[in-house]
Amino acid sequence: MIRKKGTDTAATSSRLHDATGSPHIIECLDLKKSFGETEVLKGISFYIRNNEFLTLLGPSGCGKTTTLRILGGFEEADAGEVSFEGHDLLELPPHKRQLNTVFQRFALFPFLNVFDNVAFGLNIKKRPAKEIEQLVRKALRTVDLEGYETREIDQLSGGQMQRIAIARAIVNQPKVLLLDEPLGALDLKMRKEMQVELKQMQRDLGITFVYVTHDQEEALTMSDTIIVMKNGYIQQVGTPADIYNEPRNAFVADFIGESNIIPGLMLQDREVEIEGRLLPCVDPRKAEDQVDVVIRPEDIDISEPTENLICGTVESVVFKGVHYEMLIESDGGFEWMVQSTDKAEAGSRVGLRFGPDDIHIMAKSAFSPDAAGPDSISRAYDTAEGGEGDE
Hints:
The protein is of the alpha+beta class. It has helices at 64-72, 114-124, 129-142, 158-170, 188-205, 216-222, 240-245, 250-255, 381-384, and strands at 26-35, 38-48, 53-57, 79-84, 87-88, 99-102, 176-180, 208-213, 225-230, 233-238, 260-268, 271-274, 277-280, 290-295, 301-303, 310-319, 324-330, 335-340, 349-353, 360-363.
């Protein structure tokens, strides 16, 4: 299990449309932003479909929050274009954009009760009192807090305060809701509950959610589409299943869940050499290609060591509740992680067994375990959508 990082895709198309020909609600082209000498966004392009739950995912400093703040109007882009339903979004001040933002810190007014917190934006717009009451009560029903109108903010739990923050955003009937790590202040149990609630809320509202997080589980649980970012570049765009099962490079494979990333050599199409063993795989490649081989820990079975298997010595065993997590030092000198309901004792010799479908082949990249070079190479967005390959 080698811990180094990977690279690949970014988007480049001025008018991006889905397969039906309908325009997307938001399109970003070649977006750039620097703070002083630090380039935070290095020319990213992507689109957001109407009514989808899209997540910007990546480690701290990758540019995801800056992207969200540019969409919301809290930061100015140095270069690039952003269109909203075909119109230039960057020309509009924040209060005229049909987007509302929910922050990690709830920013509720402690001197106002629940009703007045939710109604704050409507009051600023001087909407009629009867309309405000109807909209506030509808928003509170949506977040399952009907009857809390007269509660004081300090009488609410963390999860309830987060729902009030969401109600305050959706009461203005935005077409897009921007959420900047909104669950970060909650405990683990509450975060898991809110993940399910947020996804159901998005379906019920029928509006677009753009969600920022560094938590892979949140992204995989809630998203229709995930954009994985690293150092100001887009690394991969896809569904949660695509991102997990078909990572584009070593960074994505390692960042999304646990991965064993081992150097390999394609001897011929659909046959790879790993640690001196010739193994069938399902991914096509040219002969003599140096590749990265990704095998997820849960896809490996342990068995008696034989000459046909990659073998090694169990270095450690940790009980994780639903499985044992074992680190195995192979005879080839690589550390493998195995997650299995079968337990092998520390110090014992084992063989590693996995099938062709469990082997994912990736092209070498700047973030391969043995690579050096620039952090990322921009590629066309259709690569991430299954078009011309980054292979």
